[in-house]
């Protein structure tokens, strides 16, 4: 139960010039607190997603673009990831689960990307590179992860640079 000492969440804030998926929820839900709960980082959903494009990148990386089969956008924060089941031993065997960071921007929630680095000695990543094609449907759970920018400062602009995967 929420204590009266907890400060109220700030009013919905629109990132100037950017349509963030939670703006619509913030303006339509019963209040900022309700919307924050609805899109909270610890409320991942199970869903199926279809690969719509694969884009080879340098360094043994491949970008896989997906869209949800239920037609819903994927509301997430930059820095979150998805757990994906890969049917590497066929449709009747137990799938193998791996985590992948969402590598697309939350401002474009109708499709989303993951970028997988091929580990030649790995179980899943070579299978993903060799088998996931447009039309491939995978079961996913997400978004997951609390390592993202704080919600209260959405108007701020950041430039973050990072390297590495795996
Ligand atoms: C939160 C999170 C986000 C991630 N985001 C990304 C991402 O954006 N992109 C990305 O490419 N990866 C990401 N990863 C890593 C990803 O989940 C996989 O671990 C990675 O793709 C390797 O999986 P794999 O099945 O190919 O390899 P695995 O089969 O898991 O093997 C990995 C390595 O361990 C070695 N190995 C396996 N078993 C043994 C053993 N018993 N003894 C010694 N060595 C062993 C293998 O030879 C191989 O080199 C992320 C992981 C986490 C947790």
Q: Percent of residues in helical segments?
A: 10-25%
> What gap, in angstroms, lies between the N and C termini?
39 Å
CATH class type of the domain at 41-145: Mainly Beta
Mean pLDDT: 80
Bound molecules: flavin-adenine dinucleotide
How do the helices and strands follow one another from N- to C-terminus?
Answer: HHEEEEEHE
**Integer-rounded radius of gyration:** 18 Å
CATH superfamily of the domain at 41-145: Translation factors
CATH topology of the domain at 41-145: Elongation Factor Tu (Ef-tu), domain 3
Strand order of the largest sheet: 4-3-6-1-2-5
Shape: globular
Task: Report on this structure.
By secondary structure, the chain is of the alpha+beta class. The protein is 13% helix and 28% strand. It is built from 3 helices and 6 strands. Strands 4-3-6-1-2-5 form a 6-stranded antiparallel β-sheet. Helix 1 (21-28) crosses helix 2 (32-38). It is globular. Flavin-adenine dinucleotide binds at residues 81, 98-101, 115-117, 119, 121-125, 165-166. Residues 81, 98-101, 115-117, 119, 121-125, 165-166 line the site of flavin-adenine dinucleotide (FAD).
Note the main attributes of this structure.
166 residues; alpha+beta; Elongation Factor Tu (Ef-tu), domain 3; 3 helices; 28% strand; globular; binds flavin-adenine dinucleotide
Describe the secondary structure blueprint for this structure:
Elements: H1 21-28, H2 32-38, E1 45-56, E2 61-68, E3 81-86, E4 96-101, E5 112-117, H3 125-131, E6 137-144
Antiparallel strand pairs: 1-2, 1-6, 2-5, 3-4, 3-6
Helix pairs in contact: 1-2
Flavin-adenine dinucleotide binds at residues 81, 98-101, 115-117, 119, 121-125, 165-166.
């Amino acid at each position: 139960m929420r204590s009266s000492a907890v400060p109220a969440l700030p009013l919905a804030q629109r990132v100037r010039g950017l349509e963030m998926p939670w703006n619509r929820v913030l303006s339509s839900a019963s209040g900022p607190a309700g919307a924050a709960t609805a899109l909270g980082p610890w409320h991942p959903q199970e869903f199926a997603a279809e690969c719509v494009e694969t884009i080879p990148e340098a360094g043994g990386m491949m970008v896989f673009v997906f869209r949800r089969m239920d037609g819903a956008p994927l509301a997430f924060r930059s820095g979150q990831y998805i757990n994906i089941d890969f049917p590497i031993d066929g449709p009747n065997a137990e799938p193998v689960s791996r985590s992948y960071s969402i590598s697309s921007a939350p401002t474009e929630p109708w499709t989303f990307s993951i970028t997988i680095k091929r580990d030649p000695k790995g179980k899943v990543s070579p299978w993903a590179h060799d088998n996931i094609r447009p039309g491939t449907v995978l079961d996913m759970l997400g978004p997951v992860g609390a390592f993202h920018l704080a919600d209260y400062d959405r108007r701020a602009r950041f430039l973050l640079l990072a390297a590495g995967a795996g």
